[in-house]
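REQUEST ID: PR-0412
SUBMITTED BY: lab tech R.K.
PRIORITY: routine
TASK: structure prediction, single protein chain
INPUT:
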Amino acid sequence: MDALAKDLWRRAQEALRVARHDLSVSSDAAASRAYYGAFYAVSAWFAVKGRTFRKHSMVEAAVHRDLVRPGIWPKELGAGFSRLAEARSTADYGETEHVSDEEAREAIRMAADIVQPVSQADPERFPAPQD
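STATUS: complete
OUTPUT:
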């Protein structure tokens, strides 16, 4: 699982970098990439524990059940992950709905807030992002 966790962490870092870059080009693309930054970071955390998920909704449920409910993460991080999932849905599938520039900036901030405790929990395996 270490190889998977390492790759997921690399993907998380890349997604956050791309989200920041894409903000000037497309708020939808930036919000989607921000979600993936958080998604991959959380998935890396769970992979270290031998857990993988087949659906995005399963990762979101695990965040609330296994991180927020037992008090490992504050409720705000769980709510932030859920807001990121909603923003990604709008960005990727919203038809005539779009993510605003302000919402995309907030999505990037939320994703960075979610990546941080993953890095802090195991800084050797998950080095802090290089902005």
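NOTES: The first helix runs from residue 2 to 22.
REVIEWED BY: pending
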